[in-house]
Amino acid sequence: MRSLFELSTGLLLSGTAFAIVLAYTIRFLAASLGAVEAGLSKISRNIDAAARTLGSSVSEMLFKVHLPMLRPALGAAALLVFVDSMKELPATLLLRPFNFDTLATQVFTLVSLYRYEEAGLSALTIVLVSLAPVLVLHGIIAGSRPGAWMSRSAAVEGGLEWAFPAGR
Q1: Mean pLDDT, the chain, as a whole number?
Q2: Model-wide pTM > 0.70
Q3: What angle in degrees, to the nearest 10, is found between the helix axes of 67-86 and 17-27?
Q4: Long-range pairs for 1-9 at CB < 8 Å and ≥24 separation?
């Protein structure tokens, strides 16, 4: 930028949140890619052929067929990256000279100074913030199963038989 436009950019990319996003993207690409590949492996080529036979274009097939089927895998990949990035320490320690701190670096600093009581609140915050999306994803998965809308008491009152009926 300086040689072309005589404009000093300073630490435009390396001193901002862009650096941490890039580091997290590189660090957690394998985990998220594994979850997405597992979701893609469950989509049969016959589904693609059926969509193409019914006149869908490639983009329609992506948005109307593949993305709805990949939603659980994409959610799991996003959850893995979010939870791992909440507790990631090495990448954020590299950005400390740029005055960029996260909860993980705050816990690390306080524990290294033997101030465990003060570090406890930040550590619990990491756990609680990481636990919230896990519980939301669990609710989504449990709600998407067949028969999940019906509670056990409603099923018993409705006369539905279970695998091992209680009266026999």
Answers
A1: 76
A2: no
A3: 110
A4: none
User: 98 lies in a domain?
Assistant: yes
Do the Cβ atoms of 100 and 38 come closer than 8 Å? no
Structure tokens given for 158 = 């409705």
| pLDDT at residue 87 in the model | 73
**Per the structure block, which two tokens stand in for 82?**
């979010």
CATH code at position 70: 1.10.3720.10
**The two structure tokens encoding residue 120:** 């406890």
Comparing 10 with 74, the larger pLDDT belongs to 74
Residue 78 lies in a domain: yes
Burial class of 73 by CB neighbour count within 10 A (0 to 12, 13 to 18, 19+): buried
Rounded-to-integer distance, Cα 90 and Cα 98, Å: 14
C-alpha to C-alpha distance for 143 and 146, rounded to whole angstroms = 8
What is the length of the chain?
168
Q: How far apart are CA 31 and CA 140, in angstroms?
A: 21
3-state helix, strand, coil in the chain (%, to 5): 70, 0, 30
Give the total number of structural domains in the chain: 1
| Residue 9 placed within a domain | yes
Gap between the Cα atoms of 30 and 46, Å rounded: 28
Tokens for 166, please give them.
């209680």
